[in-house]
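queue> pop job 88
queue> type: inverse folding (structure -> sequence)
queue> payload:
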């Protein structure tokens, strides 16, 4: 896969932590020309940019960006082009887990959820498209989640926002195909990152490392896969969840998850 990333300029949102950071490091190890980390968390951004710059001098730029604000995203993409001269790859990775009971969530909570997990990526796509069109090439990668194929109780906002992003991504792929702009949707698989703690729980012991997740995603992206699935659970979810032959079994499974979660046991 190294050949695909060699000499490329990439932007990774949510690049200061977890999967985004691992994606950025893997791109650099594949001899990407330059990588921009865009993130809201200035402390992590400074720390990780400085660390990566020591290993890959001159190749890394950290940019503060709140992806829920279109002006921020436009400004970030402008600065990224100034830095790298072009943008070959945009990875819309920033996002959050957004758990909780539907009854306790307001419309404002839902608007914030879509602002982060859906509109953030949409703004990224809008900002980068004119640049990729001018170049005559590019690759946009949207990080969704296995939840798009396995919607679960107490994760209504996460399920809905990631399914919406997946729909946008897969449909757009064929609008842009003939312009030589590739579009890929990717699930990271269950991965041990700070997202779990932010959501008030620990990652399951079976969770893979962010580096494993980044390897799988970038290998699939290099092959221009339509949908990269980050682990075997995501493969099963994508195969089975909407298969009409398995509808009754799916009901049993997801109802069991819902009841256990209601009783306080966080199962998946
Ligand atoms: N970790 C998993 O098991 C898992 C599974 C499926 C999908 N995902 C998805 O992978 C992506 C990365 O998650 P992660 O696990 O690395 O989480 P993480 O919490 O480690 O990283 C998320 C990063 O996004 C940044 N961010 C949050 N809001 C932002 C905003 N408004 N603007 C800019 N940056 C912002 C955070 O500061 C953080 O650096 C997310 O989209 C997540 O939904 C993760």
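queue> result:
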């Amino acid at each position: 896969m190294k050949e695909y990333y060699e000499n490329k300029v990439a932007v990774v949102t949510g690049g200061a932590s977890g999967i985004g950071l691992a994606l950025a490091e893997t791109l650099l190890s594949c001899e990407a020309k330059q990588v921009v980390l865009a993130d809201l968390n200035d402390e992590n951004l400074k720390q990780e940019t400085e660390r990566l710059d020591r290993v890959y001098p001159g190749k890394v730029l950290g940019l503060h960006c709140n992806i829920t604000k279109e002006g921020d995203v436009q400004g970030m993409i402008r600065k990224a082009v100034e830095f790298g001269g072009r943008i070959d790859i945009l990875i819309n990775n920033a996002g959050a887990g957004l758990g909780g009971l539907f009854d306790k969530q307001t419309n404002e909570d839902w608007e914030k959820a879509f602002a982060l997990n859906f509109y953030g990526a949409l703004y990224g796509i809008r900002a980068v498209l004119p640049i990729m069109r001018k170049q005559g090439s590019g690759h946009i990668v949207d990080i969704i989640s296995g939840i798009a194929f396995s919607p679960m109780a107490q994760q209504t906002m996460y399920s809905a926002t990631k399914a919406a992003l997946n729909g946008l991504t897969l449909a757009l792929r064929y609008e842009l195909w003939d312009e030589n702009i590739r579009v890929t949707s990717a699930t990271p698989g269950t991965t041990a990152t700070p997202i779990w703690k932010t959501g008030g729980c620990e990652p399951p012991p079976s969770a893979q490392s962010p580096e494993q997740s980044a390897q799988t995603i970038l290998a699939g992206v290099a092959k221009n896969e339509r949908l990269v699935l980050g682990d075997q659970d995501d493969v099963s979810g994508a195969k089975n969840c909407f298969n009409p032959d398995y509808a009754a079994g799916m009901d049993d499974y997801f109802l069991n998850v819902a009841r256990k979660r209601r009783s306080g046991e966080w199962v998946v």
